[in-house]
Amino acid sequence: MPRLTPPPVDRAAAAxxxxxxxxxxxxxxxxxxxxxxxxxxxxxxxxxxxxxSPEGSLRVRELLTSIPGIGPTRVAxxxxxxxxxxSKRVGGLGVRQRRLLxxxxxxxxxxGRLRSRLVVLAGPTAVGKGTVSTxxxxxxxxxxxxxxxxxxxxRPGEVDGVxxxxxxxxxxxxxxxxxELLEYATVxxxxxxxxxxxxxxxxxxxxxxxxxxxxxxxARLVRAAMPEAVLVFLLPPTWDxxxxxxxxxxxxxxxxxxxxLETAKVELAAQDEFDARVVNHxxxxxxREVVExxxxxxxxxxxx
Length: 304
Ligand code: 5GP
Known about the structure:
Oligomer: single chain
Distance between the termini: 61 Å
Helix content: 40-55%
Number of helices: 12
Structural class: alpha/beta
Bound molecules: guanosine-5'-monophosphate
Order of helices and strands: HHHHHEHEEEHEEHEHEHHEH
Strand order of the largest sheet: 2-7-1-8-9
Mean pLDDT: 89
Strand content: 5-15%
Shape: elongated
C-alpha cells in the first residue's frame, strides 16, 4: 500500500520550510515598504534566481501592495492592465509579463526619483530646523524653500514673503477654503501655520527640489497627501544639548521653555516614522546631508 500522508518527521520539516519561506517573503515585503529595497530590484532578483526563492515565490499582488503609496484597488487595476492573473507569483511570470512588469516598475521608479525632490524637515523644538533651512536658502540657491503662511506676528528682522507670509485669521480661513494649503496646523497651541500649495507645485513642475520646514503634525499631513515626499527628522546631538539650545536662545520664558521641552520629548518619540534622520552636530554638515537626500535615488532614502 502506498503511503498517502508523509511520515510525521517530513510533515514537521515541511512545516518548518513553509514558515521559513513565509518569513523570507515577509522580509522582502518589509524592505520594499520601508524603501530600503526597490520593487524592481526584487523582481530582477526573482527572475535571476530560483522560482522558490523569497523573491520568486512572492505573489505579484503582494509585491505591488508593499510599494508605499499604492493601495489594493490600484494594485488590482495595474494587474489587469498588465494582464497578470491575481494568483501569479513573480518567479512564475512568462517572458512577456516579465517585460511588462519590469518596464512598469522602472517607469514608476524614475517618476519617484523625480518626485522625491520634495523633502520635509521636521524635528523637536530648538533642534535648529530654522538655522539649517536658512543655511540651505543661503548656500543652495537651486533648492526652493517653501514659505509658510502664519497668523503669528512678525518678529524683528522677519520679512513678509521671505520668512513667512504673515496673514490674519480671515485670510488663513480663505486659504483653507480655497484649498490653497497642502497642510496646516495650530502649532504650540497658539498660531496657525500652513504650506501654500501653488508655489510648491510650480517649483516641482520646474524640476526644482523643494524643502518644507514644518512641525510634526504638518509632516504627518504631508505624508498622507504626498506619500512620495521624503520625511527627514533633525536630531540634537544629545538631550542636554537640546535643553541648552532652548534655554540659551532666550526667546521663551521659563514656563514656555518647560512646555516646549515636554513637547520635544513627545516629538523625539516620533522619529521612527521618518524616512531619514540627520543629527545636527554642525549646521553646514546637517544642511549638506538634507540636500543630499533630495537627490538620492529611491533606496538611498534611509540613512538613519
Ligand atoms: P516659529 O513661530 O518659531 O517660526 O515656528 C514655530 C513652529 O511652526 C516650528 O516648529 C515650525 O517648524 C512650524 N511651522 C512653520 N511653518 C509651518 C507650516 O507651514 N506648517 C506646519 N505644520 N508647521 C509649520
